[in-house]
Specification:
By secondary structure, the protein is of the alpha/beta class. It is built from 11 helices and 18 strands. The longest helix is centred in the last third of the chain and has 20 residues. The radius of gyration is 20 Å and the shape is globular. About 45% of the residues are buried.
Length: about 350
């Protein structure tokens, strides 16, 4: 039996809580024993995000409830924790747990900066525990299928790829921490990091990035980036500044030599150079469930994830931070092999 706790019971914490039964069905002998949130009211009220309002049952009487993460980690015997916390304390709580020998699944983004992300990775290695970051796109079958099409070159090489992730301003966070760029990293680090991670997963590390940000409702409420690769054009937009009436929207369009593939809410559609368009029939998968199931398998089998190793999440932070620097300086930022960032 693997025992775990959820630390952070806002929108994403409640989302993970709502999937506990499915995780147990797929992963076997696991048990949620405790939940923690600094805001005691979180145990009684629903929380909205850009995915909508969480509406699952908040009957929590069988769980131990805490308002202090340190106390939870001291009192509970845990195999792992699922943390869904404000970005600026991701490193602190993850390191606190890992130093106790507890495996950590931490929501994205990995951390506010590269130094924090690398510290988390180093701590996992030092204490020989598993660390996974919630880069869930890798587990949704439409994104996984798109990645396979890119890697296999089924339709030839990529000519151009465009990604977008468009959201209303995130006014739902506890004490509005998401609207403080120094705590959240703005749209670039919180929202846009999903597409950053996919771009790295599918295409590898870009040579450089050129980014442009808007700062209307908060610093970096949107960011648009050109990723510099040889032989293809890759761009992405992350938008946080839209009105509350706007419906959260994600998508991608990848033009290959022999076809164009569109990813939208209804799945993947292939538009060949010759012939009729066709929608790919994919088995539905809940990426939020599948990532936790993979993480549990890594714990049980003492292995690193083949889909989502923590080293990749460090790379996503490196790229996203370079984008922020490019947007702030008006310069193209090179991503060099040594890991340093320099303006070119």
């Amino acid at each position: 039996m693997l025992k775990f706790a959820i630390i952070g019971f806002g929108g994403l914490g409640k989302l993970h809580f709502g999937h506990v039964a499915e995780i147990k069905r797929k992963a076997g002998d696991v048990e949620l024993v405790a939940i923690c949130d600094v805001n005691e009211n979180a145990f009684r009220t629903q929380t909205s995000t850009n995915l909508g309002e969480n509406k699952q049952d908040l009957e929590l009487s069988k769980y131990h409830l805490y308002t202090d993460a340190a106390e939870l980690l001291e009192k509970e015997e845990l195999d792992f924790v699922v943390t869904a916390l404000p970005t600026y304390i991701h490193e602190k709580i993850a390191v606190m747990a890992m130093e106790r020998g507890i495996h950590v699944f931490s929501e994205k983004p990995m951390a506010l900066n590269l130094a924090q992300a690398e510290h988390m990775l180093e701590t996992a290695r030092e204490y020989k525990v598993k660390l996974m970051i919630g880069q869930c796109l890798r587990y949704f079958h439409d994104y996984a299928a798109l990645k396979e099409i890119i890697t296999s070159q089924r339709y030839g090489g990529v000519v151009r790829a465009d990604f977008h992730r468009l959201s209303p301003l995130p006014v739902w966070s506890w004490q509005n921490w998401m609207l403080d760029e120094e705590k959240s990293g703005g749209a670039a680090l919180d929202l846009h990091v999903h597409d950053v991670d996919f771009i790295y997963w599918a295409f590898g590390m870009p040579k450089a990035v050129t980014s442009y940000a808007t700062n209307g409702k908060m610093k970096h409420d949107s960011i648009g980036t050109v990723y510099h690769y040889d032989g293809m054009q890759v761009t992405a937009i992350g938008e946080w500044g839209l009105p509350g009436s706007f419906t959260f929207t994600v998508g991608a369009l990848v033009r290959f030599e022999k076809a164009t593939v569109k990813l939208a809410a209804d799945g993947l559609t292939v538009y060949p150079e010759e012939g009729e368009a066709r929608k790919l029939e994919l088995t539905p998968a809940n990426g939020y469930v599948e990532e936790i199931v993979d993480f549990i398998a890594c714990i049980r089998e003492d292995k690193e994830s083949a889909v989502n190793p923590p080293e990749s999440s460090v790379k996503a932070i490196r790229i996203a931070r370079a984008e922020k620097l490019s947007a702030d300086t008006g310069k193209t930022i090179a991503l060099e092999l040594c890991g340093a960032q320099s303006a070119v």
